[in-house]
Amino acid sequence: MYIKGVVKKDRKTKKLTNRLEYGDIALIDHKDLDEVAALSLVEKKVKCVVNINETISGRYPNQGPSVLAEANIPLFQSNDDVFNRIDEGDIIEIIENKIISKGEKIADCELLDEKRIEELLNIGYANIESELESFIENTLEYAKKEKGLVTGKISIPKTKTKIKGRHVLVVVRGRDYKMDLEAIKSYIDEVKPILIGVDGGGDALLDFGYKPHIVVGDMDSVSDKCLKLAKEIIVHAYPDGRAPGLKRVEELGLKAQTFPAPGTSEDIAFLLAYANGADLIVAVGTHTNMIDFLEKGRSGMSSTFLVRLKVGSILVDAKGVNKLYHSTFKLKYVVGITIAALIPILVITFMHPLLKELLLLLKIRIRMMLGL
User: Fold this and answer.
1) Does domain 2-119 sit in CATH 3.20.19.10?
2) For the packed helices 302-311 and 265-275, what is the interaxial angle rounded to 10 degrees?
3) Which of 80-84, 153-157, 285-289 has the weakest average pLDDT?
4) Given a cut of 70, is residue 109 above it in pLDDT?
5) List of residues 6+ apart from 19 with CB closer than 8 A
6) Given this model, what pLDDT does residue 4 score?
7) Buried b vs exposed e over 192-208: b needs ≥16 C-beta within 10 Å?
8) pTM exceeding 0.90
9) How far apart, in whole angstroms, are the C-alpha atoms of residue 289 and residue 146?
10) What gap in Å lies between CA 262 and CA 259, rounded to an integer?
């Protein structure tokens, strides 16, 4: 196999995707490449991906490598030295199992083809039971520590955006978020819910032509453009009050509130909507199962479990809604509707006195021509 291209690199894949262009080679440092990250690489149409970390460690069956394989994007695994020896913008060549830069071999690499990916994933599937046991134990242990999320001990900010009595759409850039947003587009246009983007979920809304009313998160994967367009920004802070993401917002000359709380940013988005009087919360792209959370690097889902217990009465998850119904465009339906619409028009037209006289004259003219 021979591949040549321009390298773009970053140790955080979600930051790298903002800089990638068609045909680039993505150099990443991503242990257990997750599905969402892989989908973002596929969307950028990269030429190939080189990972200096364990793409599949075998801890659980992460689906990112399979996503790249299905998109026919070659995936290579190499060592950490590559990251230090290649600069952003360098042109490299990959020849069989060698990485070449400026005519010099700088590292070996291994192609993870479908067969190799399947072998590694089988190790993950074999470990899933023990991983599940550990995941449940961590969830219960941390639920005891984080119970303040639902017992009223956490101070929840009052939003400037009026939420009381309104529908709220919370968008996370998770699996199938694009298809689900497309599926509920008519709902958004008709109901006009309050739009909350969780970090990159704000950019997801922009991609569909909507400006988020509120952006919530630690500000590590949302664009400057989205932050500037959002009407309100709420930075997820650590329980002790530290908010690293606030500095970025302030450097943009923007104002924000902080929300100190344990758990994930999508959890606090739900709490924010619920505490401010939302009538209904619709979730898109949120994380709901063990694999989702393991791919996020979390060993449990205590905060999500607690928050969903609290807001469950008004929460609707749109995940997978795109699979419930697929409309099909059929020409015969359009023709039928058109004919049905024309019938009353034709009836009214033929009943008009002037048209009756014209038809009578036409009838007489035809009879004269035929000698009848």
Assistant:
1) yes
2) 20
3) 285-289
4) yes
5) 8, 10
6) 95
7) ebbbbbbbbbbbbbbee
8) no
9) 19
10) 10
Rounded-to-integer distance, Cα 232 and Cα 168, Å: 14
The amino acid at 111: L
Nearest alpha-carbon partner for 310 in 147, 189, 192, 196: 147
- The string of DSSP letters for 215-236 reads EEE-SSSS-HHHHHH-SEEEEE
Task: Look at strands 75-77 and 91-95 and give their pairing.
Answer: unpaired
- The two tokens of residue 233 are 């920004």
At a CB cut-off of 8 Å and minimum separation 6, what does 73 contact? 41, 42, 46, 47, 48, 49
Given a contact cutoff of 8 angstroms between Cβ atoms, the answer to whether 250 and 201 are in contact is no
Domain ranges of the chain: 2-119, 148-323, 331-370
Q: Which residues are within 8 A (CB) of 146 and not within 5 positions of it... i.e. 6 or more apart?
A: 262, 263, 302, 303, 306
Tens of pLDDT, residue by residue over 29-70, are 999 998 888 999 999 999 999 999 999 998 888 889 999 999
Confidence check: pLDDT of 364 > 60: yes
- 258-276: buried (b, 16+ CB within 10 Å) or exposed (e) per residue? bbbbbbbbbbbbbbbbbbb
CATH 3.40.50 for domain 148-323, yes or no, is yes
> Residue 322 corresponds to which tokens in the numbers above?
């795109």
Output the CA–CA distances (angstroms, integers) from residue 50 to 234, 276, 278, in the order listed: 35, 45, 45
Which phi and psi (to 5°) does residue 117 adopt? Answer: -60, -45
User: Phi-psi category of 253—alpha, beta or left, where left has phi over 0 and alpha has psi -120 to 50?
Assistant: left
φ, ψ dihedrals at 130, nearest 5°: -70, -35
Mean pLDDT along residues 144-171: 87
Q: What is the dihedral of CA 270, 272, 278, 280, to 10 degrees?
A: -10
Local confidence band at 331 (pLDDT 50, 70, 90 cut-offs)? low
Q: What local confidence, expressed as pLDDT, does residue 332 receive?
A: 57
